[in-house]
Structure to design on (216 residues):
């Protein structure tokens, strides 16, 4: 009888221990992993210094031909609006030759430069269409027969373009620019006399690449 009582007590104790194990495990809260934050997205900023090279040509106006040169500028960005100043210097192979009373006359643009303001609006983060305008100047040569005269003329420039940021440092550009330079008069020897060169209007399209210094 005592043996049966001891056995019964032992089975009951084993049942209590077994029943308590799942309850204890259920009370243990699962360990949660801390969420990993995604890297913050920083929109492209056009502010800062840049410089580059360009290549293009005349597509209309008084002279046509190839041009190449360089530019340097600085941008300020306020929200989506970009303001800037830019200057460039171009070597030019543009000219036009015609006959006046049987005499060959050549009108040439040897070089030119501009100092312009720019204003644009950022589109899709890395596209920057803009408007530009300002001062223009250039070296002009007029040839009549076998003699020539040259002068530096002032004028104005106006145009539109679009920049695209390829990387944080490099950008590409396509630009249309109209340049208008004042006339000059030259006195030629040999009976040619006084010749007025006339105002020079020049329509050019050029592509460019720029490198940004110290980008934001």
């Amino acid at each position: 009888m005592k043996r049966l009582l001891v056995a019964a007590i032992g089975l009951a104790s084993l049942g209590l221990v077994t029943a308590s194990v799942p309850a204890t495990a259920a009370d243990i809260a699962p360990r949660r992993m801390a969420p990993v934050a995604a890297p913050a997205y920083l929109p492209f900023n056009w502010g800062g210094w840049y410089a580059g090279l360009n290549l293009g040509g005349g597509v209309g106006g008084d002279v046509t031909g190839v041009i190449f040169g360089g530019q340097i500028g600085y941008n300020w960005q306020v929200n989506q609006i970009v303001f800037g100043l830019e200057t460039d210097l171009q070597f030019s192979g543009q000219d036009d030759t015609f006959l006046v009373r049987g005499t060959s006359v050549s009108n040439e643009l040897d070089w030119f430069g501009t100092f312009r303001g720019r204003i644009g609006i950022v589109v899709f983060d890395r596209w920057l269409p803009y408007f530009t305008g300002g001062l223009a100047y250039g070296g002009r040569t007029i040839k009549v027969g076998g003699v020539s005269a040259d002068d530096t003329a002032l004028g104005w420039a106006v145009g539109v373009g679009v920049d695209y940021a390829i990387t944080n440092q490099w950008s590409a550009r396509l630009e249309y620019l109209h340049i208008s330079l004042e006339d000059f008069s030259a006195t030629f020897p040999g009976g040619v006399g006084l010749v007025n060169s006339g105002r020079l209007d020049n329509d050019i399209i050029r592509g460019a690449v720029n490198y940004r210094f110290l980008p934001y």
